[in-house]
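User: Predict the structure for this protein chain, please.
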Amino acid sequence: MNNKSNFDIIQDSFSSFSLLEAEDDSDFLEWCSMEGSERISELSRQIRTFFNYKNIIIHLRYSRSKNEPNYNVTAIVKKQENDLTTLFFQYTPLMDIIGADERNFDDKIRNLMQKIIELPKNYEKDLLKKIKELGSKLWMKIHTLSELELHHYPRLLIAVVKISKILCSAESVFFWPFSCFYLELSRNYSQLEKEISILIPSNEKVGIKMRESKNKLRVIE
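Assistant: Here is the predicted structure, written as structure tokens:
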């Protein structure tokens, strides 16, 4: 008797594994090696990104320097912020479509995956694929921002941390073998958020507005 759940069977609904028709064992093993390498690289980057933000917060906490960032740094940060904003406001309408918010995003994705397994529909498959693809692009922008001097931009910093938590919820479902990793990462980002809230003056404490028609990362009190 097969006791595996549907999620055990599919593992990663959108990996190329479901499309692979290996002609021999060597091809299959080569693919497995490449796939495993990509997963390891992704997890490694996630850890580096988190610790970059941890270092930014340490800088924010202990640095006595009030020097403003130079023009070139500001321009780079602004460009990356605009890119992140554009991606984020493509992402949130997809959350709306599946009825998700920050608290239940993982459950909504899991339910949609289950529906696709039981009765595949192209629209739902494309929707889930789009969520995954935009999430990957958002992660790359978040990583790029983590290597910049975001201690000068506390409002952007807290918005990025909040977005990271949302993405962790999605990744915990898309890459279920690493769900514990992403849930732990989400908890760590929550801790960073608390640390930032202590460091940033009360008049600058912000939250992200999930639904916004304008192409601008709007913050709310």
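The longest helix spans residues 25-62.
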